What does this fold into?
Amino acid sequence: MKNYIVFDLEWNQGEKTRDDELSDLPFEIVEIGAVKLNEQLEIIDTFSRLVKPQVYHEMHKITEKLIHLTMKDLEKGDIFIKVADDFLKWCGEDPAFCTWGPLDLPELQRNMEYYNMEPIADGPLPFFDVQKLFSLEYENGKLRRALEFAIDFKEIPKDQPFHRALSDAVYTARIFQGISERIRNNYSFDNYVTPKDKRQEIHIVFEKYAKYISREFDTREELLSDSEVMSTRCYICHKNIRRKIKWFSPNGGKYYIAVSYCNEHGYMKSKIRVKKSENDKLYVVKTSKFISEEDKNELKDKKERYKQRMKKIKK
It folds into this structure.
């Protein structure tokens, strides 16, 4: 039986100066709170633990304003290895993680790696980004709202303080309970651990788009010459389709866009985002979706404006 683990983290950070070197642990987790839901999305258990700081022994001024904890409170907690181990055991086998936004899972794994704990997964980890699902259910799918906004929108009683791990997990669970099954199918992937070879690469088709997460590459040149990365295959009929707008990058290489045409399914926009892995290698997240001819023409104009801008710069 699958359990949904809706969790939230609170973390602290050091006061940085210009001469400070970046720490291997920029954010130290100080609290883990979680709610366990069964397959009927009923709350069946909770988890709440403080973590005794081992890295930062003063509260950052921003953290101090947000969370309702002091360093004296945290001294009552257990060390991270103990709390994290207890948390993962409490989660059970094959948990379906849920968080508000994409930040908590990588921070949990970064803290675990700092203490040489076994990783949660050996590749991209599927999870439910409830912040994104809220936007898909109630808005345009692009906006990202604060948790309190969503609680007010759903008229859920605010009977617990925000910015404590368990209370934020409870609020997130209440939002998740109201998401339709169709929208819940649009789960996300946490890429703290990236695919190391082609066998681990992610190819998945959702209701309105397809996603591909590549293996790691040493250089951008190698990445952009890979046939799978640069392909524009129709994700419905799996045919290679002709590009109507060749790959271009309107922002200096942060992402690349192309438009292809399938005789059966129409215009397909593909977007490649180049990302850096935790070990400083490169990988891509490519999304593809079908668009209207009007959308295609707007992208064609965008590419032309980009070309004209580049000509002026070269002059």
Remarks:
- The chain has a mean pLDDT of 93.
- The domain at 4-184 is CATH 3.30.420.10 (Nucleotidyltransferase; domain 5).
- The chain has two domains: 4-184, 195-314.
